[in-house]
Design a protein that fits this description.
single chain; 15 strands; 21% helix
Length: 251
């Protein structure tokens, strides 16, 4: 377990680490930057840098965490990478099913494989599934996600690299938006964010603004038009999803 600094979750769990780039949103991958610092250091968990690595010794970690937690799965990888065997993915879902007191959040850019495998692997109600969409060129990922029978489907528009008009939000419960951070961060136009917020409001979809990003992420903050947008989807047994609005105005 790793306590998370990611604003929309509390913990991370990485039964797989390492990945390869598939689209422009991967160009300045924070996980790759972190992992490659340790390449070649004997005995370090990232001795092999960001090479894709299965971590079976971590598979049952959530079962030992007795306090309910919100857990982002594979912050340092993509579970649906082509080199992760289907049988191993099924084991990850088995653990999440058994650890039903936790809420798991799973995010991928490999939406086509996600849809294909979820026809054979059952998704428990405590697993939210999302896709990363950094520009409108990747709306196809949303179409695949909408065909996945998850209790909550969400989009991560981070890093947001272009305007997203006509965002297909039918069947989507939650949208996270954020700018790129770190050296070489590409700028994000505030109007791109406002447009997505308006589209979410029109579609009654929860909107979460994570960060402006930039080289100095903390100083840039995460307020949009003087408001912190922390909307989250809520699911309770036997009831459909609705939006819990948690908007903190500046005092």
């Amino acid at each position: 377990m790793t306590r998370s600094s990611i604003e929309w979750t509390t913990e991370t769990w990485n039964p797989v680490t390492g990945c390869t780039k598939v689209s422009p949103g991967c160009d300045h991958c924070y996980a790759e930057t972190f992992a490659e610092r340790w390449r070649g250091v004997p005995g370090h968990p990232y001795e092999s840098g960001f090479d894709l690595t299965l971590r079976p010794e971590r598979l049952e970690q959530p079962l030992s965490w007795l306090r309910p937690r919100t857990i982002f799965v594979n912050s340092m990888s993509d579970l649906f990478h082509a080199d992760v065997p289907e049988g191993y993915i099924a084991k990850v879902f088995d653990v999440m099913t058994r650890a039903n007191w936790h809420q798991f959040q799973l995010l991928t850019k490999r939406a086509e494989r996600l849809e294909r495998l979820m026809k054979r692997i059952a998704i428990p109600a405590n697993v939210w599934i999302g896709v990363s969409v950094e520009t409108s060129l990747y709306y196809s990922r949303i179409r695949h996600l909408r065909r996945v029978p998850a209790a909550v489907r969400f989009l991560s528009c981070e890093p947001l690299l272009a305007p997203m008009p006509d965002l297909p939000l039918a069947g989507i419960d939650w949208v996270i938006v954020g700018g790129e951070s770190g050296p070489g961060a590409r700028p994000m136009d505030p109007d791109w964010v406002r447009s997505i917020r308006a589209q979410c409001q029109d579609a009654d979809v929860a909107f979460f603004f994570k960060q402006w990003g930039g080289v100095r992420k903390k100083s840039a903050g995460r307020m949009l038009d003087g408001v912190t947008w922390d909307e989250m989807p809520v699911v309770t047994p036997g009831r459909s999803t609705w939006v819990q609005k948690r908007i903190e105005a500046v005092s």
